[in-house]
Batch of 2 targets.
Target 1
Amino acid sequence: SKDQWEVDPEELTLGQEIGSGQFGLVLEGTWNQRKVAVKMIREECMSDDEFKEEARVMMRLSHCKLVQLYGVCTQHSPMCLVFEFMENGCLSDYLRARKGHLSQDLMLGMCLDVSEGMAYLESSNFIHRDLAARNCLVSENNEVKVSDFGMTRFVLDDQYTSSLCSKFPVKWSAPEVIKFCKFSSKSDVWSFGVLMWEVYNEGRLPYENRSNAEVVESLNSGLRLLKPRLAPDAVYLLMEWCWKEKPEDRPTFALLLHELASVSDL
Ligand code: ADP
């Protein structure tokens, strides 16, 4: 009998390349009459036995604001992951391409979409660990969905996994993650604050001209990212709340979702 998460390679048609990432190439494809994105996993990049175990958990996570994992194709090398296709690509590129043309409603809507997806992950006790605009994708009808949840655990590149190394996403990380690798839904909330900052800065990178070491030092002295010109006061207050030093002083995603929804009623 076939595992439910196993995609039959006969049912999968591969098309053109649409990107490349941490684990290798991403191709467009078709599976069961559905357009899909297929991640071809380069063996040396991923601890794939551990991933196969976790794939079962990830496939059970299902929400309209999460990029759905449909299945994995493990019978051939390279292993492939089959995902819901997102027509409008990653959120950071999407924001940069529409610079100067993003309405307040649109920007708040993006934050709401992400907070909904994250509230679902929080309620499922699943930690994202790498939330950032680059790890969200935009659908055909401009909905934002959270992607790549939990995937950093399977990266084999040391440069990525130690907070002292160049590829670690320090600029999105909570202090307790940088210091002790203490991940939690509350460290995801910190990253969400930075993601909101990216949205209201139309895709600019946070702390653009600063090194990771300089960022750590300024966080330690209590400094935070400045209010984006386009952000309403109420939204910047939420960002600052996400960046409280102590995890327990930060809001939950459930609360953030509620607060963002009430900003949109103003
Ligand atoms: P990785 O997580 O392995 O680093 P990414 O998820 O960043 O790789 O994917 C690289 C690129 O491939 C993205 O920037 C995006 O353009 C494209 N891509 C990834 N997943 C999808 C998807 N589900 N639908 C459409 N495009 C995708």
Note: The chain is about 35% helix and 15% strand.
Target 2
Amino acid sequence: MKNLERDVVVIGAGPSGLTAAYELSKAGKTVAVLEARDRVGGRTWTEQMDGATIEIGGQWISPDQTGLYSLIEELGIETFERYKQGKSVYRTEAGEAIVYEGDDFPVAESTVAEMNKLIELMNQLAAEMNPDKPWEHPRAAELDTISFHHFLRNNSDDETACNNIGLFIAGGMLTKPAHAFSALQAVLMASSAGSFDNLVDEDFILDRRMKTSMQGVSIEVAKRLPEETLFLNNPVLKLEWSDEGVVAHGADVTVKAKKVVLAVPPNLYSRISYFPPLPRWQQVTHQHQSMGLVIKVHAVYETPFWREEGLSGTCFGPNHLVQEIYDNTFDGEETGTLVGFISDVEADKVWSLESDEERKEVVLKAMAEFLGEKTLDPKVFYLSDFGSEEWTRGAYATSYDLGGLHRFGPTQNDNVGPIYFSSSDLAGEGFQHVDGAVRMGRRSAARILAELDGTSYDESYDGVATLTEKANA
Ligand code: FDA
């Protein structure tokens, strides 16, 4: 057992924990990062499969994600644009695949009008919200105690419009059925991305990717940490704490520190035994944040055959097993990669199938209903399975149960003595995204520095500038 003494110990080497560690070490503090897995990156993870680059976890960046943009600028990481040229495919409830162009789904004019009405309503609600404080929205309690499913139907009689709008937040983002989270949670998702318009515009929200891959961002940050800082294969299962500091117990490293950044997803807080136990409020709060569940399907072909047919690879099917598909070919690769998404109750169905062969057959058949027979024969087929990853337990991220956001949210970012919580799932802007993880990492570092150095913390700091830039501003 290695016994270390540091100013700060960080638990979790995902983008949030690593950003916090990087900022703290640049500010001259000694840091140790204890990571459960044998790799960095957490919910961002890249593998090579038969020559193709597969982003198993997070991958896209949108123009408003300026926290992440400032970090990659600092690291010298470039981005490339997702392939967007060509027409898209929409699968109707009756199972017809319609090729279309433009922003509107090819549905009845009255449905388009209803969808636009709902989009406008969500835009208004999002504009009234400070994403850092969604519980201060004038209608917070009302919106948090109605499910998004029922909220949509209270505002429109058009079932197709409700399903289509529901897709953008339910299957598309929170990866829970729309009856399982509140309208306030849905408005937060929109507000965190700038507007609901941004969220429903796939060319905005899924704009670009990292040339290093998204896990590459964490790898580059890790390279810049001082020696003897990062310790992989060190799950922390026991944390002693008092006003004087903490002792974090990893598998073969124990760290005594003045402060701890707990940079694990909120659903895993209770995986750790705390001595003494956390206060009542946190013990209760942490039971109300749970992971969604989505399967990311990767299918690699000899060529991106859909492009030759004038298609972008973008497909939507709100009532289908595979609800979204995109061209996911990595920069410079000649093969063509499609990524599909199977969310919540549809994911349950896929995992309940008997064998990998059956899953492959069912999923490819569903994808072929959008893009034709050639879809059935990929050279690589892989399903991202974060639900069975012990150190994540779902995907993409955690959200509150009905009523939880306005009840527990206001204190979710309060530190408990020396313990600071840092996760993309606690962010306002960039909520549930790598951008939010970076912003939270910087904000946690800033709060700890203020405590350690006896200076004041600027509550308005949004985590976009690095702490050095902020100090020099
Ligand atoms: P994250 O979960 O990444 O890291 C936490 C770390 O803590 C992990 O490394 C874990 O192993 C470790 N840990 C847990 N318990 C521990 C313990 N007890 N002791 C030590 N270590 C412990 N975002 C985006 O911006 N664009 C996108 O396209 C997508 N797409 C996407 C797809 C999929 C399939 C997933 C799963 C997620 C995304 N995301 C995304 C979300 C994005 O990946 C996510 O928001 C960030 O990775 C969160 O970063 P954090 O550092 O907060 O947690």
Note: The chain has three domains: 2-42+215-278+416-472, 79-103+293-395, 106-204.
